[in-house]
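Lab notebook: predicted structure, single chain.

Context: the supervisor wants predicted structures on file for every construct in the current expression panel, including those that have not yet been purified. This is the next one on the list. No modifications to the sequence; it matches the entry in the shared construct table.
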Amino acid sequence: MIQERKLSMPFWCVGNPVGDPFGPGVLTGVSSIEVAELLAAAGRKGLINYSAAHDDDLVPWDPAKPEDDLDESSEVYKTLVQIKKILTSGNIKFNMIGCALHPDPVFRNGGIANPDPRVRLLAAQKVMRALRIGSFLGADFFTYWVARDGFETQFSVPWDKTYRYLQEALNLVPRYCKANNLTIKHATIEYKPNEPRGEMFLPTVGHSVALISTLENPDFWGVNPEVLQHDAMTNLSPVAAVAFAMYMKKLFFLHVGSQKPGQFDNDNPPTIGMDGLKEMVSIIYFINKYNWNGYIEFDNHMLRTDTIPGDADRLAVRDKYIEMTVDAYRTVERKANQLLGENTIDAMQQSVWKDDSELETLLSEGNIEKIAESKIDYTQVVSEPIEIGALDLTVNKKLLGF
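Prediction complete. Output recorded below exactly as produced.
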């Protein structure tokens, strides 16, 4: 049983000014250097182990200078050097890089799945630059968030080509990493059902794992579900998504936050909000029960109400947000591990799941003749109670401290 996981706090969480579609950001902006300093301070406090970023969180993108990160005289290169030095001072490993294919208006109809090949070429160049930046900072992972690769109207999409565009772009990632001897060892797909587009081409964990199976190097690719947000947005189960990804050996790491099912992407910190406490505990419970060895990365922002406008508190508020977010996750983790040690819950689970090694072997071997000739006492099976309600009440009492 895993007791405590390593945690990653990304640049985009800390730097977020907390705007929404109805109003601009409340928090005064911070530079990537200032975010790095906040992260390093959190590392020195023992709160976090890793960080991550989109390329645009670190340095600006100029499409006319697709290789400015390689120019040691450029401001981009100098900024990256400074960020690396600051993170190292806080014992923070930079673990994941993503490519921002959503802010710039050129990507308004998609990035790597855009039907315009000129835009796809710009996206490919930007992805290669992001991979280099990640490798310079020591990243092990690259993440493709689906961003604006989606649609609002059915007749605007070249459906016979769109998934090929995705394949071509994703295949480019391991090829480029290998050709340039980059540090990046694996990549993930962060799926989402909608937002910012009306619909996404990769809306679920199942879509993502299926596409990965068609790629040139499927072992290079996995998924990083964002739980509870992305699955719960359309009333799917985050715990089922995590369990499926884990069973398929495609769960490379987890993004965590909180979400009210059926709403827009809340992106609240873990356990903060009207719903999600039990669901988050269940996810941590099962990944620990089955000894999944990955790490947890935050993907959320502070509540807009918790911000303070102006320069005076722009760093202090963000520092407090980091502490609160880590505290929220560790609280869930402690509760999940308490449940793992509850013999009553274990016994009730076994009563529901049953345990018959002989029948397990028979079914797993798939011998048609033996399965056909086997006899089961239907009357006994159908009359046995399946006490799931009692099990759930026991869990609820433990969650409430009884």
